[in-house]
Each structure stands twice: as C-alpha cells, then as structure tokens.
Amino acid sequence: MTQIFSIVELVQQLEALGVHSGAVLLVHCAFSQVKPIEDGPLGLITALQEAIGPSGTLVMPSMTDEEEEVFAPERTPCLGMGVVADLFWRLPGVLRSNSPHAFAAWGRHASEIVAPHPIDVPHGLDSPVGRVYALDGQVLLLGIDHTANTTIHLAENLAGVRYRRKKRTPALENGRLRWVEYREIDHCCENFRLVDAWLHERGQQRMGVVGHARARLARAREIVNVVVEQLRRNETVFLHPFGVDAECDEARASLADA
Ligand SMILES: [Zn+2]
Predict the structure, then answer these.
(1) Residue 240: pLDDT above 80?
(2) What separation in Å is there between the alpha carbon of 252 and the centre of ligand 1?
(3) 54 within domain boundaries
(4) Which end of the chain has fewer CB atoms < 10 Å from its terminal CB, N or C?
(5) CA of 190 to the centre of ligand 1 (A)
(6) How far is ligand 1, taken at its centre, from the CA of residue 221, in Å?
(7) Does residue 2 belong to any structural domain of this protein?
(8) Domain range for residue 105?
C-alpha cells in the first residue's frame, strides 16, 4: 500500500529540509511525484503555508498557457506550470501579477513580488524572481530538477549573457490586439541540470523528500552566485552544440550578431 502523507507530516518533511518560519519561498512542483497526500494539491499548499507561517511569503510561477491570447490575471490558466501552480493563483488571499510571465504570491511580501514587471525582460532583477532574490528568498524544487528553475534565467541576465531568442506576445492597445515583439534570454534549458552538481560541491543545496517527491532547497542568492561565476567562465555553458534542438540553435546563432 502506498502511504498517504498527512499535512502534519508534510510540514515535518519541509522543516527537516530547511524550510523555516518567515521564509520567502519560491516553489516549482511536479505534483505527480509528490502524491498521494492528504487533500491533494490544496494539502501541499496548506503545508507550505504552515511551514513558513503568517510572516512567510509563498511564490509560484503562474505564466500563461495561452500564447495566442491576451493574458488576464483573473482567468488565464497556467496548467503548464503544474496543477499546484494552477490552483495556487485561484485561492483567496493569493495575488497574481498582470503579465504573460506572471507569478503568484501569498503572505507578507506578496504585493511587492507581484508588482508590475516588464514584458520584454521576463526574468531580470525587476521581476518576481528578481524580487525573491533581493529578499534573500529560497527556491524549492519538488519532484522536479533545475530545468524548471527560473532563478537560473535571472542569473543569466545578471551575468550579461548575449544570446537571445525571438518571442512575441499579444497585448491590447486601445481595444486592439497588437503583438509585442522582444528578444528573451532562452534556450531548451536542459543543461540547467548542471546546477545540481555546482551547488552540491559548495554544500549549498539541501536534499530531502516531501510527500513522495525528491526535494531540493537552495538560497536564490547562492544559485545566482554559482551560475554567474560559471557563465563568466563560459558564456555558452548551458547551450547545446548546433544541431541538437531548435531553441539552443537559435540562441547560439544569435551570438553571431550580438
Ligand atoms: Zn538545447
């Protein structure tokens, strides 16, 4: 029989991992790896809120699935970010930023984290992940590895990498739809897995189990520091060689005119 973890047990697991009262906690989660637990996705959110307490701040990615539609914070789903993230923004007391690159937040610093942020630089210092970093927040990966860790894009921004991919997103202007075009630091992100070993070498990542999932916890500042160091040594450390995937090809090709 598969054990069903209770909310009380989940809180204990989070505390054993190093999640503490008052923390600013940015969570990326694959719930399929966490379950079965009491109350499902809502039970996990409840456990996270209890572990950080009323002085804590819980943050989750909330970016749109609808690349062809104008983002509406009160109704655009974000199932691509997982069932927990797509439930989180709908809960009472949770705020969501008004951007196709939205994040949602609950608790003490929620309103500053979801304050307006620019469309054309989704993960710079002036963005929800940048604000979590500035608040010395932690990143919690549940059942998912660093390929989902948006804070690494913040580090790419701070390191000043020159590769970009062309993106566009629809926006309303005087009631008319218009495409906002921009160039974003992006690629397939598979090689974000390298960050695991970099953090381990420095003893800067706690490993544990939450529900049934493998869990990783690290400070945003330590993630950014180690990634910036590596990128200054080798700007293309995350990019596949030409011919592996279209995203990395586009990013590499952009360096020619950077
Ligand atoms: Zn790639």
Answers:
(1) yes
(2) 10
(3) yes
(4) N
(5) 6
(6) 25
(7) no
(8) 7-257
